[in-house]
Amino acid sequence: MHVFVTGGTGTIGSAVVAELLANGHTVLALARSDKSAQALTDAGAQVLRGQLADLDVLRAGAAQSDGVISLAFGSDYSTAEALARSIVEESAAMAALGEELVGSDRPIVTVSGTPWAPGRASTEADPLPTDGPVAGRSRSVNALLDLASQGVRATAVRMPRTVHNQGKGGFAGLLTDHARRTGVVGYPGDGTQRWPAVHALDAAVLFRLALESAPAGTAWHGVADEGDAVRDIATVIGRRLGLPVETVPEESFGPFGPIFATDQPASSTHTREVLGWRPTHPSLIADLANIQP
């Protein structure tokens, strides 16, 4: 396939581009800067210059592709308002991409987070939350999946809170960044809450499998580690950075505070059984050993 990819230089996106190219696909990737364009060219992708807010550019990219993988999302999470703006921008982009594919039976794969289910690991059958700080993102993903009834092979890959590579990325990466700024590896609550995780290279394989074969209107879980206790994650980070580890108010993490404090393990049993996905790369705890002091 000739695949249009947005977000192709991020932690997940760069791995997805490499995975597609290594498996016989060609890639047209959105680039908003000279640096991103050069990275994509060096990787072997074709480049389409534009921003995620450039809806006509997105439509043009989708129009000349055999399928789409939508990964781009804003990078400013400093306030609830900034996060909300990123969600609105992503929602408009997904709607434009989906509309371009109506009636074509071509695939589009988007990304969301795994939901949480009180007292157990969430599964692919659990709905995304339609309230809370990321409710808008859930609604836009659901709207895209609804396009299955209009001739779009729309699917969603739900990512865990930490997608990591070389000790970087996801919620664990945000904990590390926060620790470098404050001198303390802090975590909300008592630290027994669990976060699921996956290596970016394993996630990339799942995006390719969904693109190639997942039925329309389906959702999949890219979860390798069902749930690591946040206190255990923080302990490894503290050991690598030589910093103390302690509980801090959830407000310390801005709009992510309530999510950081939530127990949210997730299962990928159905995904593995149906799509044949098999994670092979290091677990989060093992990969955190790559953090540089």
From TrEMBL:
Gene3D superfamilies tied to this protein: NAD(P)-binding Rossmann-like Domain
Pfam families with a match to the protein in the record: Epimerase (PF01370)
Residue ranges of every copy of the NAD-dependent epimerase/dehydratase domain listed in the record: 3-214
InterPro entries documented for this protein: Epimerase_deHydtase, NAD(P)-bd_dom_sf, NAD(P)-dependent_oxidoreduct
Record protein name field: Nucleoside-diphosphate-sugar epimerase
